[in-house]
């Protein structure tokens, strides 16, 4: 997932960019996802730097983020993925009490979908869990007049064009044209993509999950 | 948080330090090592250190890329102590057991196991302090420049800190020819933990 702003390295010049970007629902969801991704990275208590959490939370406040999204709703949605110390610092910064019944917040639902949606196969076959998340998110977004999160799919997946570099009988190695990392595909998975075989030199298009680099779509152009 | 006695709120020149830099407050938390160890790079802003800082900052501002990119990721911590003196250092990582300096802490870097960082309290022995924050080179600004913030979770972002406190610190640097772009971060709204 591409973060529009690097959360851990916020500078004054980023504040203006954030303030301007908050009008764009995609930017907003992506920013919240990026912030929560940072919070989730503080998984071990020893990794939690309270000063950083407080500073970043307040820098985002200065940029106007917490006027757009509900801080209690964010904590409620993401709390089980993050160390409690993180949320203590978050609450300390913004001065609110934890609540069991925060308001519904479409942006946070979209951010959660961006970070935690699971998609085991191709685009055509969403998992029940993801369909549920997207349906609930879409409903919430509609209420708030925001676009459907399906339009944010590009944040989940990255499409590539490449060439089959080698095919050993067990694995196919694809070299992407854009110079990114090669990807290896088990030949047993080719049938899943309705391909019988691939040979060295074949041109292919494919998509990978940004989070795990798992291939989710593969075809010959 | 406990304020220091009112007698410390005025310096020998009669300046109301509480009004200028905010009251001296105890930090909401201090790591024990920050009571014992002072940063190796700790320096007081005075007539001796300021010219060195001026030349270093000017070189960066004038386009020395090496320092531009280092100091966009390596904040210089600063704090105003109870007497109104300004202290600064880089954020340092020390080995917990030996308490020896290991490396400066980059903005994006984690503190490795067995090590600890020396945050703002270490600059003044963990005691009460006035406003505090960071100075770094904002390489992403329209005109890249040195920026000063009150981004210290333990002193600079305490409730009651005001933009003019940061302006007054910026002016102190300015008296030495150091131009800083101020960026005030709104402080915490509640009390400390």
Structure described in brief:
The complex is a heterodimer of chains A (221) and B (193). Chain A is built from nine helices and five strands; from the N terminus they run H-H-H-H-H-H-H-H-H-E-E-E-E-E. Chain A has helices at 12-21, 25-41, 50-63, 65-68, 71-78, 84-94, 106-116, 128-143, 153-156; strands at 157-167, 171-176, 183-186, 203-209, 215-219.
Q: Helix tally of chain A? A: 9
The averaged pLDDT of chain B comes out at: 90
Work out the strand percent of chain B.
15-25%
Q: Distance N terminus to C terminus of chain B?
A: 9 Å
List segments of chain A where confidence is low: pLDDT < 50 over at least 5 consecutive residues.
Answer: 118-126
Write the layout of secondary structure elements.
The complex is a heterodimer of chains A (221) and B (193).
Chain A: H1 12-21, H2 25-41, H3 50-63, H4 65-68, H5 71-78, H6 84-94, H7 106-116, H8 128-143, H9 153-156, E1 157-167, E2 171-176, E3 183-186, E4 203-209, E5 215-219
Chain B: H1 17-21, H2 32-36, E1 43-44, H3 49-61, H4 65-71, E2 76-80, E3 86-90, E4 92-95, E5 101-104, E6 115-118, H5 120-123, E7 132-138, E8 145-149, H6 163-175, E9 181-183
Parallel strand pairs in B: 8-9
Antiparallel strand pairs in B: 1-3, 2-3, 2-7, 4-5, 4-6, 7-8
């Amino acid at each position: 997932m591409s973060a529009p702003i690097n959360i851990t390295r916020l500078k004054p010049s980023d504040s203006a960019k954030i303030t301007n970007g908050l009008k764009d629902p995609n930017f907003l969801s992506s920013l919240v996802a990026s912030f929560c991704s940072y919070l989730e990275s503080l998984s071990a208590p020893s990794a939690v730097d309270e000063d950083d959490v407080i500073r970043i939370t307040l820098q985002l406040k200065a940029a106007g983020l917490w006027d757009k999204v509900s801080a209690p709703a964010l904590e409620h949605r993401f709390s089980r993925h993050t160390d409690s110390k993180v949320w203590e610092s978050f609450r300390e910064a913004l001065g609110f009490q934890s609540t069991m019944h925060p308001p519904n917040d479409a942006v946070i639902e979209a951010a959660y979908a961006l970070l935690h949606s699971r998609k085991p196969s191709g685009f055509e076959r969403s998992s029940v869990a993801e369909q549920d998340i997207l349906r609930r998110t879409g409903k919430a977004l509609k209420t708030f007049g925001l676009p459907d999160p399906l339009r944010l799919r590009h944040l989940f997946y990255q499409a590539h064009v490449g060439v089959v570099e080698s095919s050993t009988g067990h694995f196919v190695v694809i070299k992407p044209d854009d110079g990114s990392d090669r990807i290896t595909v088990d030949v047993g998975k080719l049938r899943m993509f309705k391909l019988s075989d691939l040979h060295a030199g074949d041109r292919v298009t494919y998509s990978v999950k940004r989070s795990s680099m798992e291939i989710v779509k593969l075809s010959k152009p | 948080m406990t304020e220091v006695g009112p007698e410390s709120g005025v310096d020998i020149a009669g300046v109301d330090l509480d009004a200028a830099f905010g009251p001296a407050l105890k930090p909401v938390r201090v790591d024990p090592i920050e009571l014992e160890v002072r940063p190796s790079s700790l320096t007081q802003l005075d007539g001796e250190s300021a010219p060195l800082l001026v030349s270093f900052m000017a070189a960066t501002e004038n386009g020395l890329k090496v320092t531009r990119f280092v100091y966009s990721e390596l904040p210089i911590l600063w704090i105003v102590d109870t007497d109104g003196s300004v202290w600064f250092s880089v954020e340092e990582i020390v080995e917990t057991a030996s308490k020896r300096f290991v490396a400066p802490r980059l903005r994006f870097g984690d503190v490795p196991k067995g090590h600890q960082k020396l945050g703002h309290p270490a600059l003044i022995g963990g005691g009460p302090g006035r406003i505090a924050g960071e100075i770094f080179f904002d390489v992403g600004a329209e005109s890249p420049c040195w920026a000063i913030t009150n981004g210290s979770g333990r002193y600079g972002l305490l409730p009651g800190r005001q933009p003019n406190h940061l302006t007054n610190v910026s002016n102190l640097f300015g008296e030495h020819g150091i131009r800083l772009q101020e960026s005030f971060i709104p402080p915490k709204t509640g009390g400390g933990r």
